[in-house]
Amino acid sequence: xxxxxxxxxxxxxxxxxxxxxxxxxxxxxxxxxxxxxxxxxxxxxxxxxxxxxxxxxxxxxxxxxxxxxxxxxxxxxxxxxxxxxxxxxxxxxxxxxxxxxxxxxxxxxxxxxxxxxxxxxxxxxxxxxxxxxxxxxxxxxxxxxxxxxxxxxxxxxxxxxxxxxxxxxxxxxxxxxxxxxxxxxxxxxxxxxxxxxxxxxxxxxxxxxxxxxxxxxxxxxxxxxxxxxxxxxxxxxxxxxxxxx
Length: 245
Prior knowledge:
Elements: H1 2-22, H2 36-64, H3 67-91, H4 95-110, H5 119-122, H6 132-138, E1 146-149, E2 153-156, H7 157-173, H8 178-194, H9 207-222
Antiparallel strand pairs: 1-2
Helix pairs in contact: 2-8, 3-4, 3-7, 3-8, 6-7
């Protein structure tokens, strides 16, 4: 089994590196942003979509929905993500974190009423964030250029591929139909956007640069070797589930 895992990992690394080479970005640092002209156009589209669709819906959701219900929705979505966190932590060799995430799923799905309540956190099992972009980084796959994805926002070539892999894994794990996937994506988008409404005043200057630098700094922390970052002392574990009071 171990040999199969090593072969599969080698295939993934070769595949991703080939994509990076084709894109001419295998040696580029994301901060150089060689695709800035294209990225800014996509960013402008995203801002318009947010202004006319996403933000109004998120605002209505935030204003109308009681906080306990919003928290329950967030908990349920995070319970689904915890399955993926467990898998990626395992692929990264973070066995303790993988066990923690798996335990969170088991406890919150049962005692937490299908994930509506975060019982695991209350008994000391903190969320351990892990995505496939991190997994690729742990396998020494280069980041590639910074890219702005339509709707999904800031990313890098490596993290964009990781995002697609995570989305596929989640749909398989939850056995979602196309309608189910779209519903999950919509719920996640609105839930996440509502959590950012109170921090908009912090966005200053060139919005494109602000979001780019915020993303790059966050990903630098998330993909740093474990010895260089203590998640107990950072906000990283709370990023996906955070909703301001």
